[in-house]
Each structure stands twice: as structure tokens, then as C-alpha cells.
Design brief:
Strand content: under 5%
Shape: rod-shaped
Distance between the termini: 132 Å
Radius of gyration: 50 Å
Largest sheet: 2 strands, antiparallel
Low-confidence stretches: 128-150
Order of helices and strands: HHHEEHHHHHHH
Length: 284
């Protein structure tokens, strides 16, 4: 039996139509998944950035520098900032240490000035004690204390009289006269028990005149044997200051060391001035 060709053709056409409709209704998979889409987005972003950099270089005429915008570059930038902060902190710490050192120096200088002021006050009080109680003579006049407006001690004066006259000249502010008087005393009464103290006061007058070398010699003669007297610690301190003025810092530091060792109970004012002298001499 021969098949009917028109019917067969119609059946084939109908089957193809149905298959096409089924295929049209079945969804097809997207060839790009989510990861591929993100990669494409990143690539497009990089391309846009590169185009912007190139156009910027073309417009400004400057060389184009492309820096990675990823984790390595960010870490490098953070490390650079941390290094900058560490440098700033180091500089600030150094400035703080310098300021503290300067403050300590100012404190020591202030203590030395206060000690000098106290010494001047004591000197004025002693001068007032001399001038406030004059000795009444038999003629109704008054005799000034030894040295105050008086002539130098005569050659036949006792060591005590000569010393008192020289001391009085110094207390009156006549340092030139006191220097000459103490030099005469040391020359004539060098074996007297007052000679060390006379050398001490002679050194004081020489310091006023700025004769640091002669003053150092006088102070050395004053403290020879390290006497246990009230003026001895100040004599050692004045010796160290004269040595500092002579640019003999090492010798000054040695003298200051002996001051602490031999006179541990020195007055606070002496210790404060000694501390300032150590700073000035840069003693270790």
C-alpha cells in the first residue's frame, strides 16, 4: 500500500512546528556566569581608569605613572604612613628631652642666683651690724669699725687687728683696698692661723676683679689641708668656678668631687651652686 504523500508531508510539517514551539519554550543557559560577569566589570573599570590616565597625561604633558590599586600598593602606603608617624614621634621625643634638660639647667641657675642673693644679703647684714653699733670714744666721737674708712693696719698691728681691718674694707665694698690689705696680711702673717681664711677672702676680692688665675691660687692656699671651717666648702666651690673660667673643666670637676666627699654636710646653698657648676663644667 503506497503511503499518501500529501498526508506525510503535512504530518512532517506539524511535527516540526511542535518541536520548534517546544524548543522556543525551553530556557537556554547563560554562557556567562556571575564570576565571569564580575571579571568583565573589573576589566571594564581598569580600562576606564587607564583611558582616564592616558587622557590626563596627554592633556597635561606629564609622564603617565600607573600604580596598582590592589592590596600590595595599599599595604605599602600604610607602611609609609606608619614610618612617617614614627619619625614624627621620634622628633617630638627629642624635643621633649631637650626642653627638660633646658628646664633643669634653668632650675640650677635659679638656685645659684638665689644662693648669690643670699650671700649678698648676709654681707649687707654684716655691714649693717658693723655700722649700726659704733664704738664711742672718750672725746664723744666715734671710731669706725676696723677697715671701714680706716687706713691700712700699721706694720706693728697684731694679726687679728690686720685681719679685721682687711675684712672691714671688704664688707664696706672697698674691694681694691681689701685686696691690698689681705695680700699684705698673707705676706706678713703667712704662718698665722688666720692665714687660710685671709687667702679665702683674698680670692673673693680677686674674683670680683676678674683675676681668675690669681683667685684660684688664693683658694688653693686657703683649703690646703682641707680645713673644717664654715668657709671651707665655699672656698672649694669658688676654686671650681675659677677653674671653669680658666677653661679647666676637668680640674673643676675634680674639685667639685672633693667638695662632695670632704664636705657632705655643706649648706644647701653651697650644694645648689655646686650642682650648677657641675652642669656648667659638664661633669660626668
Amino acid at each position: 500500500m503506497t503511503p499518501n504523500r500529501p498526508l506525510l508531508s503535512a504530518a512532517l510539517v506539524l511535527m516540526m512546528s511542535v518541536s520548534g514551539a517546544a524548543l522556543a519554550q525551553t530556557p537556554m543557559d547563560d554562557p556567562l556566569d556571575a564570576r565571569d560577569a564580575r571579571r568583565v566589570d573589573r576589566m571594564e573599570k581598569v580600562v576606564r581608569e587607564l583611558r582616564a590616565i592616558v587622557f590626563q597625561g596627554r592633556d597635561t604633558g606629564r609622564p603617565v605613572v600607573v600604580q596598582p590599586a590592589e592590596t600590595d600598593y595599599r599595604l605599602e602606603e600604610l607602611n609609609r604612613r606608619v614610618s612617617d608617624l614614627e619619625a614624627v614621634l621620634t622628633r617630638l621625643n627629642g624635643q621633649i628631652e631637650t626642653t627638660n634638660f633646658e628646664l633643669r639647667q634653668l632650675k640650677d641657675k635659679n638656685a645659684a642666683l638665689e644662693s648669690q642673693l643670699k650671700g649678698l644679703t648676709d654681707r649687707l647684714n654684716a655691714l649693717e651690724a658693723y655700722t649700726g653699733a659704733p664704738e664711742v670714744t672718750g672725746t664723744g666721737g666715734s671710731t669706725p669699725p676696723p677697715g671701714l674708712g680706716a687706713t691700712p693696719a700699721p706694720v706693728n698691728a697684731t694679726p687679728r687687728e690686720a685681719f679685721d681691718r682687711a675684712r672691714g674694707l671688704m664688707l664696706s665694698g672697698d674691694y681694691d683696698g681689701a685686696e691690698a690689705a689681705f695680700e699684705g696680711f698673707v705676706s706678713r702673717h703667712g704662718d698665722s692661723n688666720l692665714a687660710p681664711e685671709a687667702n679665702y677672702w683674698l680670692g673673693k676680692t680677686l674674683v670680683v676683679r676678674g683675676a681668675d688665675g690669681e683667685a684660684a691660687s688664693a683658694f688653693i692656699n686657703a683649703i690646703r689641708g682641707w680645713p673644717a671651717t664654715p668657709w671651707a666648702p665655699d672656698a672649694v666651690l669658688e676654686l671650681s668656678r675659677s677653674l671653669i673660667a680658666l677653661d679647666k673643666a676637668a680640674d673643676a670637676c675634680q674639685a667639685l668631687g672633693e667638695l662632695s666627699r670632704r664636705y657632705p654636710n655643706a649648706a644647701p646653698s653651697i650644694k645648689a651652686r655646686a650642682s650648677a657648676a657641675r652642669t656648667e663644667a659638664r661633669c660626668g
